[in-house]
Amino acid sequence: MSYVLVINSGSSSIKFQIVDPTAGAEQDPLASGVVEQIGEASGSITVKHAGDKTKKEMAFANHTEGLTTVIEELDAIGCGPAQVELIAVGHRVVHGGTTFGEPVLIDDAVVEDLKKLIPLAPLHNPANIDGIVVARQQLPDIPHVAVFDTGFFAELPAAAATYPIAAEVAEEHQIRRYGFHGTSHEYIASQVPELLGKPAEDVNHITLHIGNGASASAVRGGHPIDTSMGMTPLAGLVMGTRSGDIDPGIIFHLLRTADMDVDAVDNLLNKRSGMKGMCGSNDLREVHAAADAGSEEAQLALDVYITQLRRILGAYMIELGRVDAIVFTAGVGENDAVVRADALKNLEMYGIVIDEERNATRGDGARLISTDDSAVKVFVVPTNEELAIARKAAAFA
Ligand code: ADP
């Protein structure tokens, strides 16, 4: 059996999975886990394998130590590179800029090009590159493949990708809508035609990828025509800790009047906003519980969350003209029946009718939650970004 090691290297964490790229979405990865709190005084590594989960507390000075430990721990459970046939390493890279759309086989020149993209994603790409450099040192004999979060949206129509600012400034600073979560949106787009029993070119759909990060896409015939994240993953829907769309004038107002510098405003909008900023928790389970217990802040936060979802949904329905399906995915989309029902409430005149019982019934795989006669089919489809990355990386093996 051949496997792909999928690495998602963040600023203080490394998530990893060993995936069979030929197996379906229902597979359990051979092994998976996460190294957390890299660079801090105390950290941990968690490894899941064959139904067991072990967590060890230890400090990691940097990504090299983190990934070395990952490989040692995989060796210890019989899943190391010498024990299983690893045919490729797939690296999640957040920003491909205008340089990269499709996945690319990583060599030294690609690493240099990735470094040039750091200004576009200063919070994400440096950690992605660290992961790539270290993994190439540790596993030099297998192909390493970069899969870009922006990739699926590389060919957004110009009208959707262009920001209405001075053209020469946009050009010089590579300012455009890139979109993110592309691996997930593309994966879902690959499932919808099958769920509808229609050829991909005939399917128009909207995907709501709502987890801690959240983004929507409008897809026509398999090609995205719009998406809610922008030049950065800060735009669009209300998220766990990110604001999503706000009036850009708010930033100047804060810089001028709130004794905040650029980094403080960046931190505010990325880490202290969204659901957490409005009501103290970015976990929707806690927010619902607080609202049910009478918290007005939690209820208002939910109302803002739903209002923004419906704004973007409405925009994409008009952009697409005809919508065959709406798909919910990621942590909130897959699990939160209340958010799904509220997001699509009272849309009967647009052909959208949720079946309450189907919506309330939990399930593992892809499932229909609209009524049989709803003109627009509504689905919950679990996303699987690691499998999608593994499949793309395996193509280079
Ligand atoms: P990330 O963007 O970090 O990948 P996920 O897609 O894993 O996030 O989503 C995590 C979020 O999903 C949690 O913060 C929580 O708000 C939400 N979530 C998870 N399970 C449930 C549930 N049963 N009900 C409501 N929300 C849930």
UniProtKB/TrEMBL annotation:
**Database matches in SUPFAM superfamilies:** Actin-like ATPase domain
Assembly state and interactors? Homodimer.
Q: Which reaction does it catalyse?
A: acetate + ATP = acetyl phosphate + ADP
Residues annotated to bind ATP: K15, H209, I210, G211, N212, G213, D283, L284, R285, G331, V332, G333, E334, N335
Q: Sorted alphabetically, which keywords does the UniProt record give?
A: ATP-binding, Cytoplasm, Kinase, Magnesium, Metal-binding, Nucleotide-binding, Transferase
Q: Which domain of life is it from?
A: Bacteria
Hey, which family's this protein in? Belongs to the acetokinase family.
Compartments, as annotated in UniProt: Cytoplasm
Question: What positions are marked as the site Transition state stabilizer?
Answer: H181, R242
Q: Which residues bind Mg(2+)?
A: N8, E385
| Name assigned to this protein | Acetate kinase
Q: Which gene encodes it?
A: ackA
Q: Name one GO molecular function term.
A: acetate kinase activity
